Amino acid sequence: AVPGFEIRVLQDGQAIYHQAFGDWSLDRPARVDSSTKTLSGALMMSLAETGANGFSLDSPVSDFLTDFEKPGYRDITVRQAFSHTSGLPAEGAASLILLNPNITLQQAARWISFKPLENGPPGSTFGYGGLSMHVAGAAAEVAAGEDFVDLFANRITTPLGMTSTRFAGANPLHPRVAGGVESTATDFARFMDMLLNQGVDRVTGARVLEAGSVEEMLTRQTNDAQPIESSPTDI
Question: Less Cβ crowding at N or C end of the chain, within 10 Å?
Fold first, then answer.
């Protein structure tokens, strides 16, 4: 039972319908849960555009995280981490890592490095979960020399004027990369419209992402030869 909900519809960047229903109000902040993956994915693309310290989608995370410099794990790439094909397990009991308020994202990545590659060698199998994206977020921090939440603010929310969007839960040094953002309908719609407009914010005309980065985000990253070990439809 959902107490209420909100619908916001844009046409060419302009709101043509915005209505709240039930026990809800316009632009009430709410967790966007797994839609966080799209926001964090945009941040990964922004960082890949700059190539900071060699960061790219096909960089091994071990280039930035020494705990992953070991057999099997050293082959995990940022692309695999963000397409659920890293081999790392789905969340399960590992949620205790993702939600831990007493550690940093770097410490979380270290703990994850001790998790077995339950879903085969990197690139072989699709296994849905947030652990691998957490690892990629930690690699991004090292590559850019900034905390993930600061990168997110500097590259995504501030350029888009998303003043009501932030990572909630855990602590500022340990954001949940794949599921921790809180936002509003107006903020999130502006972000999605930026993607629809090939990386340009329609409000200010500022380019947030290159058109090629948006195309990469909207391109399938897996193939039919990769078996599905776990997916959201299993829940």
Answer: N
Whole-number mean pLDDT of the chain? 95
What sign for the dihedral angle of Cα 47, 51, 57, 60?
A: negative
Nearest to 135 by CA among 202, 182, 204, 87: 87
Instruction: Report yes or no on whether pTM surpasses 0.85.
Output: yes
- Residue 158 confidence (pLDDT): 98
Residue 87 CA to residue 59 CA, distance in Å, equals: 16
DSSP state of 78: H
235 pLDDT above the threshold of 60: no
DSSP class of 226: S
Task: Select from 218, 208, 187 the least CA-distant residue to 15.
Answer: 187
Q: Which residue has the tokens 């850019």?
A: 144
Whether the Cβ atoms of residue 135 and residue 112 lie closer than 8 Å to each other: yes
